[in-house]
């Protein structure tokens, strides 16, 4: 048991240090890499607790998909155009500091008012390992819940389907306020807020390369509105 | 804790990784010779008999070259990214079963490094991590071509990983398990089709999934015709343009190790792994993996590179719907009790 506790402290220590790195790093790419490190260590803690499925799901979903997308976006924007994350206006700094303190107080209150260990249930690591991923599948897809899972699956599928489309520099046909206001969906009068057109208003648009303002990058950054 | 089993696992893993490294070196020789024959050339044949010492000469050359870090680079990430690629590449092979258990020194030893109950997902997870080496390497080089290669690689891997994962779901439905050992056991049964007695390999019951897996696996390993991240005609060399010496060789090694690992996994999942006529054993697995490796080289020597929009269109408009249809049909077949195990 002792060696598992030791491994846990090692993993947890690295995870916390990496999480601190996410906030402290000045380069957003370094932040993302720190986040990956943190996620991997949390996944390793799941493995120590014999929850392999959770660990693998964590790696596939968070490090394999979400952070990859984060890095993808970070590469599309010009690093010099990013706002300054550290410093800034004094009011903003003060509010950020206070909000951070409030969050810390909340977490501290939640931890200190309860025992950290929680109530021991019937599931030991050995019991979890014995039933494995098979039981998890049966439980998730048993007769009671499949509709919900299908719904979630459809949503996720939609997101994944839509994710690479802007990169193909397709134009999204977002209904403008004029057309929707006339017909309306299901008889409802919906007024979309009229977004200002960044190209027409002459606002500076972030482009992929400074001297390379091609149409694809423009439509992407402007949300594809004509 | 069973210390002996742990030590045996570590030893097996160590041996496996070393075998992979040697195989990888000779994979480069095999590819160069084979592509040369495809193109009516001779290929490397001067260093040693049949050019067999060529990989070693290449290794010495790469290690002795200067290790250059561009002034524009993000230094730390630039130095770490190739190592990341290289370290993650062989991890997928740890779950491949290489044989049944044998008894050695009065102790039963299973001929696989580890049997985790989510082995197939573990393979996918390691594959999805492997892309970080490419993304970070391309970003950290501080070079537009490298960055473009990395961007392409990101979009490509995210798209094809989905197909890769979904193509395996049919197998999971048929076996009811994610463990490669269980999947292998399911394939060692006999499939009776009319008067024919066939091995229950999943290439027979899941042919569509096999084709999808094959295409997605080639795309995942960034090999021709899906080698857009390193398209030399447009991007010089893509994400590793700025790398030299042994850091470049790490990317090179990772690519070949990835190919070998994917071939081993494909042979285990679809071609019955160690199962074969006469005596089951690791030689069948090697022979089947070799077919896949030959296929990789064959593709490279034959097909031109995809255009970017063709690549994305293929993944999202063709492969993904086919994979979903395959899952639906397999699920219905399983529900109606045909092919139940």
From TrEMBL, chain B:
HAMAP family: NDH1_NuoH. NCBIfam families: PRK06076.1-2. It is a multi-pass membrane protein. One of its GO terms (molecular function) is oxidoreductase activity, acting on NAD(P)H, quinone or similar compound as acceptor. GO terms for cellular component: plasma membrane. PANTHER family: NADH DEHYDROGENASE SUBUNIT 1, NADH-UBIQUINONE OXIDOREDUCTASE CHAIN 1. Pfam families: NADHdh. Its main location: membrane. Its EC number is 7.1.1.-. It is an enzyme of class 7 (translocase). Signal peptide: none annotated. InterPro entries: NADH_UbQ_OxRdtase_su1/FPO, NADH_UbQ_OxRdtase_su1_CS. The chain crosses the membrane at residues 6-29, 76-99, 119-141, 162-181, 201-219, 250-270, 282-299, 311-336. It comes from Thermorudis peleae. Keywords: Cell membrane, Membrane, NAD, Oxidoreductase, Quinone, Translocase, Transmembrane, Transmembrane helix, Ubiquinone. NDH-1 is composed of 14 different subunits. Subunits NuoA, H, J, K, L, M, N constitute the membrane sector of the complex. NDH-1 shuttles electrons from NADH, via FMN and iron-sulfur (Fe-S) centers, to quinones in the respiratory chain. The immediate electron acceptor for the enzyme in this species is believed to be ubiquinone. Couples the redox reaction to proton translocation (for every two electrons transferred, four hydrogen ions are translocated across the cytoplasmic membrane), and thus conserves the redox energy in a proton gradient. This subunit may bind ubiquinone. It catalyses: a quinone + NADH + 5 H(+)(in) = a quinol + NAD(+) + 4 H(+)(out). Belongs to the complex I subunit 1 family. It is found in: Cell membrane; Membrane. GO terms for biological process: aerobic respiration. This is NADH-quinone oxidoreductase subunit H.
């Amino acid at each position: 048991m002792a060696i598992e506790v030791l491994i846990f402290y090692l993993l947890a220590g690295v995870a916390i240090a990496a999480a601190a790195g996410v906030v402290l790093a000045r380069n957003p790419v370094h932040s993302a890499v720190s986040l990956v490190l943190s996620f991997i260590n949390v996944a390793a803690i799941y493995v120590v607790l014999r929850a392999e499925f959770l660990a693998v799901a964590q790696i596939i979903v968070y490090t394999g998909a979400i952070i990859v997308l984060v890095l993808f976006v970070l590469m599309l924007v010009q690093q010099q155009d990013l706002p300054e994350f550290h410093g800034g206006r004094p009011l903003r700094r003060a509010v950020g500091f206070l909000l951070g303190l409030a969050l810390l107080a909340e977490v501290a209150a939640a931890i200190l008012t309860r025992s950290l260990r929680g109530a021991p249930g019937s599931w030991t690591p050995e019991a979890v390992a014995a039933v494995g991923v098979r039981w998890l599948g049966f439980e998730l897809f048993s007769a009671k819940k499949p509709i919900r899972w299908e719904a979630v699956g459809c949503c996720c599928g939609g997101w994944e389907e839509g994710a690479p489309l802007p990169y193909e520099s397709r134009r999204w046909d977002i209904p403008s306020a004029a057309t929707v206001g006339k017909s309306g969906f299901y008889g409802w009068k919906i007024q979309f807020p009229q977004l200002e057109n960044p190209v027409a208003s002459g606002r500076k648009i972030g482009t992929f390369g400074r001297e390379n303002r091609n149409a694809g990058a423009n439509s992407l950054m402007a949300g594809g509105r004509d | 804790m069973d210390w002996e089993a742990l030590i045996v696992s570590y030893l097996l893993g160590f041996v496996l990784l070393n075998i992979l490294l040697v195989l990888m070196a000779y994979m480069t020789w095999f590819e160069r010779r084979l592509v040369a024959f495809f193109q009516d050339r001779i290929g490397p044949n001067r260093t040693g008999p049949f050019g067999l010492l060529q990989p070693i000469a290449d290794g010495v050359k790469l290690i002795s070259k200067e290790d250059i870090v561009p002034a524009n680079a993000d230094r730390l990430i630039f130095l770490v990214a190739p190592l990341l690629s290289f370290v993650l590449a062989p991890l997928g092979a740890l779950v491949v079963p290489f044989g049944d258990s044998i008894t050695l020194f009065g102790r039963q030893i299973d001929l696989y490094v580890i049997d985790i109950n989510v082995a197939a997902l573990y393979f996918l997870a390691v594959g999805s991590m492997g892309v970080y080496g490419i993304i970070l390497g391309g970003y950290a080089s501080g070079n537009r071509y490298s960055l473009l290669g990395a961007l392409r690689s990101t979009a490509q891997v995210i798209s094809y990983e989905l197909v890769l994962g979904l193509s395996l779901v049919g197998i999971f439905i048929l076996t009811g398990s994610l463990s490669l050992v269980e999947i292998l056991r399911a394939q060692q049964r006999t499939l009776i089709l009319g008067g024919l007695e066939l091995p229950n390999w999943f290439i027979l019951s899941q042919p569509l999934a096999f084709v999808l897996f094959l295409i997605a696996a080639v795309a995942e390993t960034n090999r021709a015709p899906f080698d857009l991240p390193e398209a030399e005609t447009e991007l010089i060399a893509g994400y590793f343009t700025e790398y030299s010496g042994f850091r470049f060789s790490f990317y090179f090694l990772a690519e070949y190790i990835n190919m070998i690992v994917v071939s081993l996994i494909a042979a285990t999942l679809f071609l019955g792994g160690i199962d074969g006529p006469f005596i089951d054993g690791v030689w069948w697995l090697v022979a089947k993996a070799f077919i896949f490796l030959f296929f990789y080289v064959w593709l490279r020597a034959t097909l031109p590179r995809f255009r970017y929009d063709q690549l994305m269109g293929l993944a999202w408009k063709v492969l993904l719907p086919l994979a979903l249809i395959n899952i639906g049909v397999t699920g219905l077949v399983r529900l109606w009790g045909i092919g139940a195990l």
